[in-house]
Design goal:
Elements (H helix, E strand, L loop, with lengths): L1 H27 L6 H6 L5 H10 L6 H14 L13 H36 L5 H14 L2 H15 L20 H34 L3 H8 L4 H32 L1 H6 L5 H11 L2 H29 L7
């Protein structure tokens, strides 16, 4: 098991390094792309462009520029923005991470409770009206765009009914849990449910399908022949086996969302998270910030994949030799 984990960690380092090189080449080595021209502004003369290139080390060979940026980012940690002169990149990232983590962790708890609970309930009652009712909820959840649902929630809670039913709902934004735990909760409760509904719908449908498939296996028929109750078979065997798929799905979804895929939810509810930071830096073509956020996002996605692989190896020893 130890050797398997070491192999996955080595592969993770290799993937992250490859991603950083690829992203750097896209923004710095693509023909026709001149970061100095974006920094210097429109109609800058050649002398100004040369000064900018020398100031930001853009006149050096590509490998030297890449190594220099990685050194400033990881070792000295003093990488600065191209747009906001003198503003360091890492403090901006550290400031955005708690907001994204708060949003994604809270939403993940909700969608796991709804997805697993309703998925099991639908599979258990697949011959009654409960199954189609839950399936309709799942389809609606998957079909609703996050930005549309978020805007609808804001229309109701921030405008139409804000002075009556939703008087307790604060203005859009984010308050850190260390500043005021209650305000932190109030600011995030609607973003949590808005983001969770989409993933709850996906998990309901996946888990229901997995459980129904497992219930047709031969060893389940053997358990029935031994006299085991349907509830015991459902919970101890079918649900337990089906959760392996949910673990894999959750790892990928959680890693992507923490890495910035919760952008639309952050934008709609005014949460200054990693997704919003990445979006703003892309609009401004702020390359150091883009590099930092892309590497951060890649880390969480790759780490999620590695954790899922390790968990699979723990649950199924055959995977270790694959």
């Amino acid at each position: 098991m130890t050797s398997f984990i070491l192999k996955r960690l080595t592969a993770m380092v290799f993937v992250l390094t490859s991603i950083s090189i690829l992203v750097f080449l896209i923004f710095f080595a693509t023909p026709g792309v001149d970061p100095a021209a974006r920094i210097a502004g429109r109609n800058a003369d050649q002398q100004t462009l040369q000064q900018v290139r020398a100031s930001f080390e853009l006149d050096k060979p590509i490998p030297i520029r890449y190594l220099s940026m990685m050194r400033h980012l990881f070792i000295s940690q003093d990488l600065t923005s191209y747009v906001n002169r003198g503003a360091k990149v890492l403090p901006q990232l550290w400031q955005a991470i708690p907001a994204t983590l708060s949003l994604v962790i809270g939403a993940a708890v909700i969608w796991l409770i709804l997805g697993i609970g309703l998925g099991v309930l639908a599979a258990k009652n697949r011959k009654s009206w409960i199954d189609p009712a839950i399936s309709i909820f799942g389809i609606v959840g998957v079909s609703l765009p996050v930005y549309w649902l978020g805007e609808l929630v804001n229309l109701v809670t921030q405008s139409k009914l804000h002075n009556s039913v939703f008087k307790w709902v604060p203005a859009l934004g984010y308050v850190g849990i260390s500043q005021d735990p209650w305000q932190w909760f109030l600011h995030l409760i609607f973003p949590w449910f808005t983001l969770a509904i989409l993933y709850a719908g996906i998990y309901i449908r996946v888990l229901r399908s997995e459980i129904i498939g497992v219930m047709q296996e031969d060893y389940i028929k053997t358990e029935r022949a031994k006299g085991a109750s349907e509830n015991r078979i459902l919970l101890k065997h079918a649900t337990r086996m089906s959760l392996i798929t949910i673990v894999s799905l959750f790892g990928l979804d959680f890693g992507a969302l923490v890495g910035g895929s919760a952008l639309l939810t952050e934008v709609v509810f005014g949460i200054q998270g990693v997704g919003k930071l990445t979006f703003n830096s892309l609009q401004n073509f702020d390359l150091p910030v883009i590099m930092a956020t892309v590497i951060y996002a890649s880390f969480f996605v790759v780490m999620a994949n590695a954790l899922v692989d390790v968990l699979y190896a723990y649950l199924d020893p055959r995977v270790r030799n694959a």
